[in-house]
Amino acid sequence: MAQFNRRSFLQTTGGALATGVMASTARAEDANSKIGVAVLGLNGRGQTHLDILNEIDGVEIVALCDPDSKVLADKATWVEEKTGKKPALEADMRKIFERSDVDAVSVATPNHWHSLATIWACQAGKDVYVEKPGSHNIFEGRKMVEAAKKYKRIVQHGVQMRSSDTIQEAVDHLRKGTIGDVYMARGLVYRWRPSVGNQPDSQAPENLDWNLWQGPATEREFSKRYVHYNWHWHWDYGNGDVGNQGVHQTDMCLWGLDVGLPSKINAMGGKFLWDDDKETPEQLTTNYLYPESNQILQFEVRPWITNSEAGASVGNIFYGSEGYLVVQGYGGYEIFLGRKNEPGPKRKSEGELTAHFQNWVDAIRSRDAGSLNGPVETAHTSSALAHLGNISYRLNRQLEFDPATEKFPNDEEANRLLTREYRAPFIVPETV
Fold first, then answer.
1. What DSSP line would sit under 50-73, residue for residue?
2. Does some domain include residue 111?
3. Residues 253-277: what's their mean pLDDT?
4. Residue 122 sits in a domain of what CATH number?
5. Residue 213 falls inside a structural domain
6. How many Å apart are CA 323 and CA 319, to the nearest integer?
7. Do both 111 and 233 map to the same domain?
8. Is-cis flag, bond preceding 303, omega within 30?
9. In the prediction, which pLDDT does 9 show?
10. Are 148 and 252 part of one and the same domain?
């Protein structure tokens, strides 16, 4: 692979950051021009991105990127069958960022690539839709926010509940006092997560560029324990279920309580069911305290056979002085009032993911980042909540956190876990 560093990348994309950016922006603002989109990461969630982008008017899938050549070829066939056009294919996303026909990218890679892909895209003058969690650690999240602002890019975080008019209505109930003074939010992730077994290190298959797949993570020997899905349960690549499914629910908690990062975090959990390759906990319970607003946020991951709570197994519960509100999944809510839990307003709808992508495309056209339902700030805060819980769990103690500095005061052991050692040339820059 050709030698690469950040300086050479900025030099090679200099045209994109000047005339290329202006041409791309002008094309996006022209309602009669198609927005050329590249999808980065095609296994699993990437197919969902393809499905929805293909249905949105004014969008053309012009390029695909994945380090697995078999996955890349399969999705290229899908795009050609659906659109009648052959997309450009690349294993290395840096080649995508050099393309003048790519106005925007959607990022559906593993978690450890999300922030760097977003930052590189912003530097190259591309708008971004990035899957949750926006970041793999707290440092990365802040750098994403800085990059989006500096390069004036439209960055949408994949927390599609924010584009559901039903969930927007639920939040309005919380704001106007339907359940009284809201003092607590719970996030629930009760997902069926069986044993992943045990896999040895082995030779990477010829169709996979293992170096590109690892990207910014610590270099390791290949193993089937990571590829293509179970990387979620390894600290180098994933963040456990609180940083997987759970970011939808952490984001909902923050949105509903109307708070940012907490001041105190306490997490407890572990592996209780299987002696398998997972590094992240099977079960995790975390408390986050907001002394300034006198509110508390609780989050729980359960992996196996369990009950639901108030009809929600993946969702949220908000508690107020006059009742409670249950968010069920991605597009429904129900309110219960008083000591007898009398039924209150409720609603159920679907289609929030398509609406979320449409909101992104509309913002690309208008160049109004303020119109985004899931702006880059949510990629930082909702992901950071998961990271804070994981840090408390890994250190096995309660943590004090300063939301203003985004540091643990006088706690260097915890501060070291705010970031990671990056593997050149895949380095998230201190200064974007």
1. HHHHTTSTTEEEEEEE-SBHHHHH
2. yes
3. 98
4. 3.40.50.720
5. no
6. 6
7. no
8. no
9. 53
10. no
| The two structure tokens encoding residue 108 | 């559906």
Structural domain contains residue 424: no
> Does pLDDT of 241 surpass 80?
yes
Span 174-196, average pLDDT? 98
Looking at the structure, tell me whether residues 14 and 109 fall in a common domain: yes
The per-residue pLDDT for range 48-89, each reduced to its tens digit, is 999 999 999 999 999 999 999 999 999 999 999 999 999 999
Integer Cα distance of 42 and 56 in angstroms: 18
- Looking at the structure, do residues 253 and 146 belong to the same domain, yes or no? no
Sheet (strand 127-130) strand order: 88-90, 59-65, 35-40, 104-107, 127-130, 155-157
For residue 23, what pLDDT band results from cuts at 50, 70 and 90? low
Q: Are residues 310 and 324 in the same domain?
A: yes
Domain assignment present for residue 261? The answer is yes
The pLDDT of residue 335 = 98
Q: Which tens digits make up the pLDDT trace of 134-176? A: 999 999 999 999 999 999 999 999 999 999 999 999 999 999 9
DSSP 111-136: HHHHHHHHHHHHHTT-EEEEPSSS-S
* pLDDT-derived band at 25, boundaries 50, 70, 90: low
DSSP designation for 2: -
Please list the residues that pair with 201 across neighbouring strands: 223
| Residue 331 tokens, joined | 């597009």
Indicate whether 11 and 111 sit together in one domain: yes
Tell me, letter by letter, the H, E, C secondary structure of 302-332. Answer: ECCCCCCECCECEEEEEEECCEEEEEECCCE
* pLDDT of res. 205: 98
